[in-house]
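From the pipeline queue, job 12 of 40. The input is one protein chain; the requested action is below.

Action: predict structure.
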Amino acid sequence: MPVLLPDSVVVVSHTGIILRFRYDGKILFKLRPVDGKVVGEPLVTGRGVVLMQTHGLTVCLWEGTFWTLPAEATFLSRSKPYYDEERDVLVYANEAGSIAGYSMAKREILWTHRLVREFVGAPIIGKEGVAYLYGGNGNTLIAVDVRDGHFVWSTSLEAPLQKMDIVGERLALVLASSKGSHIQLFSLREGEKVVTFVLSSGIKTSLREKRMWYLLTEEGEVYRLDTEEGRLHLVTKVQDVTGLTFISNRLATVGASGLRFIEK
């Protein structure tokens, strides 16, 4: 998927070719810093691109320099790193059960932290200097300070995590259930559970827009969750839908029959 930066668009191929071009079509950057295929989704930042391979992470800066960091290959396809632009800290799984904070400017590891339980791998997300990650063997949700890696808070979830996102000022989760899905909201700083919703079907995909979280179930139901007010609303139910998107600030479903706008 193309990644939009303020002044350009970045596209990364499955073979590791990085292409950056301005909105008028002029190519600003083209480089293939790796051999072989990349795994997982690349991380595009204002400083450069981080690619994941089976042997580690490759950091490629927009100035054209690149290098590889050893990392835990088992988790790379699932644990997309998080980069805090303001503090220049890349948070990633550097080995089994351990995470690290790395400075792309200094090219050095700032800290490492051994987790109490094994880190099973999930996208690492963050906001305002705090990174949120998911550990296994107890379904543990962990918040760490990106500056030194210390725990801000941790909590045990009742079921395995399927999706995690930051929507507005809440940490929004989808937990697996034998009879559907549990949707939960947590406060970012304290890690307190705000509200839980139980749906009768699984979640196929999600989409965030400011404080709203849109959820598409496997049964074709589209829900809108207001994370500030803690209210869940059924928007519509449609058949043969594969995804959600926003076009000109309007919510639309994507399916075999094309696009269908469902909200003004």
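Job complete. The longest strand covers residues 170-177.
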